[in-house]
Design brief:
Layout lengths: L8 H4 L4 H11 L13 E6 L11 H14 L3 E6 L13 H17 L4 E6 L4 H12 L3 E5 L6 E3 L2 E3 L3 H11 L5 H11 L11 H12 L14 H20 L3 H4 L2 H14 L4 H13 L5 H8 L16 H7 L1 H8 L16 H5 L24 E5 L2 E7 L10 E9 L2 H7 L12 E4 L20 H4 L8 E3 L11 E6 L16 E5 L4 E4 L3 H10 L10 H9 L26
Length: 572
C-alpha cells in the first residue's frame, strides 16, 4: 500500500487486484485517475425522496456540497439512505429513526469514506443521520434543507403544523367550510423545505448549529433561499479540512455541546422531541447526558424567540432577525463559548459579531416570551422514570392542576370517542392516553397532543391537561405531558390508570402523581394483562424487542456506544 493517511487508502491505494478492482469500477463511472490518487473521499449522505416533501430539494443541494468538496481538493461521492417523511409514513417515522441510523452507520463503515456531509430536513432525518455518523466517529458536518416559505392565506400568516390544529378545530366546530380548509392546504405548504414553525425539524436544525456540528445560520436559512446553497458549498469545503485535521464528530459533540443544545432549545421554544433524540445521540457517543439534565441544565432559561407554536412569528422572520447566533449571544454566560465547531472557530468566536435586527422576533432576556422556557422533567408515582413537558406552550393556569382522569386505551379508542356528545368530560378533566409508547404503538407516535372534545371546543375550552407515553409534534401546543416512562405497554404505572382516578400535576415541583392507594394499584397490577407484540417478524419485531424506553432515547439497546470504523475485511 502506498503511503496515505486516509481511510479510503485501504481501497484505492493498494497494489495488485485489491486496488485494481475498486479503482477500475470507480473509473467506469468516468472518474479520472487523479480523483483516486490520495484525495480524501467525502460521502454525501442524502435523504432526498419524493416521499419526503421536506427533503425534495436535497438532490439539488447535494450538487452545491460536491462543488465545495471539489474546490477544497476532495473526492465527493453521494449515497442515499432511507428517507423519513412525517406526513406519509406509518405507523410513525419514529419507528424507523433507528433503521436509518443503522443504514447510515453501516454504509459509512462498509465503504471508503473519510468524512461525511449529512443532508437532512424532515424531523427524524436529522437525529438519525447524526446517530449513524456518531457510531462511526468520522469527520462530519450536517447541512439542513431549511424551512419552507411562510404560509399565507387570505391576508394571514399560516404556520405549518401549528395552524393545522387551529384550522381543524374551526372545521370541526363549523367555523370553517370544507372548501376553505382545502384552500388553506395549498396556501400553508407552498415551497420546498420543512415546517416553518418551531417544530422538530427547525428545532433539530437549530440544535445542530448550536452544538457546532453545522455551520453558522444552518438552523434558519429558508430552503428556497440561495444562501442555503452557499452554506452547502461552504460545508463541502470545510469537511475536507476536518478530514485533513482529523477532527471527528466526537470532538465536536462534547458534553458542553449538549448543554448548549439544551439551553438553546429552551430559548427558541423548541420541540419536546429534541429530548428523546439528544438522549439517543449521547448514548451513541458515550456522553454522560441523561433525561434529568434537560431540567437541571435548562431550568430558568428564558424563551427569547417569539415563534409559533409558542409565539407569533415564523422561521423567515427568525432568520431575518439574526437566527441562532443572536439567541446564543443573548443567553450570555449560560453558553459554553470555548467549545469547538466545524467552522474551525470556537462557539464564542462564531457568535461574537451576531446582531439582532428585530427585537420582537428575538427578544432580550428582560423581555422574554416566558421566563422559564426550558423543558420540564416530571417524576412521581405515575412516571417513575420521568415525563416531559413544554412550559412555553402550556397554559399557566393548568401547571398546578388536580383533576379526574378520562382514559383512552389507545389512539383508536381516542379517535372513536373524543367527539361523542355523551362523553363524560369537563374542562377540569385530565385526558389520559395509553399504549402509545415506543413498544406499545409501536414507535411512540405524535398523538400526545390529543384533540380536545368537540363539545368542549364549542364551549370555548381550548386547553386541557393531557398525559400519555406518546410524543407530540413540535408544532403542537397545550398543557401536554409526554414520554411517560416506563410506558403502559410494558406495565408502567400509566397502564393502571382508570377513568375517574384523580391525577395531580405539580409542574413547579416537577411532580406527576396518581392519587390512588397503593393497595388498589397493587390489585390492578396483579390483574393486568399486557398487549401482545404488534409484530411477529421483520424490522417491526426487532424494534419492539430491542427499543429502549423514552428516558433512554428510544434507541436500540444493542446500538448504545460506538465502534468507530475499524479496518474492513476485503470481499474478494
Amino acid at each position: 500500500m502506498t503511503k496515505n493517511l486516509h481511510r479510503s487508502a485501504e481501497w484505492f491505494a493498494r497494489d495488485g487486484k485489491y486496488g485494481f478492482i475498486p479503482r477500475s469500477w470507480m473509473k467506469s463511472q468516468g472518474f479520472s485517475p487523479e480523483m483516486l490518487d490520495g484525495r480524501p473521499v467525502i460521502g454525501i449522505c442524502n435523504t432526498w425522496s419524493e416521499l419526503t416533501n421536506c427533503n425534495r430539494h436535497l438532490r439539488e443541494l447535494a450538487e452545491h456540497v460536491k462543488r465545495g468538496v471539489l474546490m477544497a481538493g476532495g473526492f465527493p461521492l453521494e449515497f442515499p439512505v432511507t428517507s423519513l417523511g412525517e406526513p406519509l409514513m406509518r405507523p410513525t417515522t419514529m419507528m424507523f429513526r433507528n433503521l436509518v441510523a443503522m443504514d447510515v452507520e453501516e454504509t459509512i463503515r462498509a465503504n471508503p469514506i473519510d468524512g461525511v456531509v449529512l443532508l437532512a430536513g424532515c424531523d427524524k432525518t436529522t437525529p438519525a443521520l447524526l446517530m449513524g455518523a456518531a457510531s462511526c466517529d468520522i469527520p462530519t458536518i450536517l447541512v439542513s434543507g431549511g424551512p419552507m416559505l411562510n404560509g399565507r392565506f387570505r391576508g394571514q400568516e399560516l404556520g405549518s403544523g401549528t395552524d393545522v390544529f387551529r384550522l381543524d378545530e374551526d372545521y370541526r366546530t363549523g367555523k370553517l367550510s370544507k372548501a376553505d380548509l382545502e384552500a388553506a392546504e395549498a396556501a400553508m405548504s407552498r415551497s420546498a423545505g420543512s415546517c416553518m414553525t418551531m417544530g422538530t425539524a427547525s428545532t433539530m436544525a437549530a440544535i445542530a448549529e448550536a452544538m457546532g456540528v453545522a455551520l453558522k445560520m444552518n438552523g434558519t436559512i429558508p430552503a428556497p433561499d440561495s444562501r442555503r446553497a452557499v452554506l452547502a458549498e461552504q460545508s463541502g469545503q470545510r469537511i475536507v479540512k476536518l478530514v485533513e485535521d482529523g477532527i471527528t464528530i466526537s470532538q465536536i459533540l462534547t458534553r458542553e455541546a449538549f448543554d448548549n443544545a439544551v439551553k438553546v432549545t429552551g430559548a427558541i421554544g423548541g420541540s419536546t422531541n429534541a429530548v428523546v433524540h439528544l438522549l439517543a445521540l449521547a448514548g451513541r457517543l458515550g456522553v454522560d447526558f441523561k433525561l434529568e439534565d434537560w431540567d437541571r441544565v435548562g431550568r430558568d432559561v428564558p424563551t427569547l424567540v417569539d415563534l409559533k407554536p409558542a409565539g407569533r412569528f415564523l422561521m423567515e422572520e427568525f432568520f431575518d432577525a439574526g437566527g441562532v447566533p443572536v439567541v446564543m449571544k443573548r443567553l450570555g454566560d449560560r453558553i459554553h463559548r470555548d467549545v469547538p465547531t466545524v467552522s474551525g472557530l470556537t462557539m464564542g468566536e462564531q457568535i461574537a459579531d451576531a446582531q439582532c435586527w428585530n427585537d420582537e422576533v428575538i427578544r432580550t432576556p428582560d423581555n422574554a416570551l416566558t421566563q422559564q422556557g426550558g423543558l420540564m422533567v416530571l417524576k412521581g408515582n405515575l412516571a417513575p422514570d420521568g415525563a416531559v413537558m413544554k412550559p412555553s406552550a402550556a397554559s399557566p393556569r393548568l401547571m398546578q392542576h388536580r383533576g379526574r382522569a378520562l382514559v383512552f386505551e389507545d389512539a383508536n379508542d381516542l379517535r372513536s370517542r373524543i367527539d361523542d356528545p355523551e362523553l363524560d368530560v369537563d374542562a377540569d378533566t385530565i385526558l389520559v392516553l395509553k399504549n402509545a409508547g415506543p413498544r406499545g404503538y409501536p414507535g411512540m407516535p405524535e398523538v400526545g397532543s390529543m384533540a380536545l372534545p368537540k363539545k368542549l371546543l364549542q364551549q370555548g375550552v381550548y386547553d386541557m391537561v393531557r398525559i400519555s407515553d406518546a410524543r407530540m409534534s413540535g408544532t403542537a401546543f397545550g398543557t401536554v405531558v409526554l414520554h411517560v416512562a416506563p410506558e403502559s405497554a410494558i406495565g408502567g404505572p400509566l397502564a393502571l390508570v382508570e377513568t375517574g382516578d384523580v391525577i395531580v400535576l405539580d409542574a413547579q415541583n416537577r411532580r406527576l402523581d396518581l392519587d390512588v392507594p397503593e393497595t388498589e394499584l397493587a390489585r390492578r397490577r396483579s390483574a393486568l394483562i399486557l398487549p401482545n407484540p404488534p409484530y411477529d417478524r421483520g424490522y417491526g419485531r426487532m424494534f419492539v424487542d430491542h427499543v429502549t424506553q423514552a428516558n433512554l432515547g428510544a434507541d436500540f439497546d444493542f446500538l448504545v456506544g460506538n465502534s468507530g470504523t475499524p479496518p474492513s475485511k476485503v470481499s474478494f
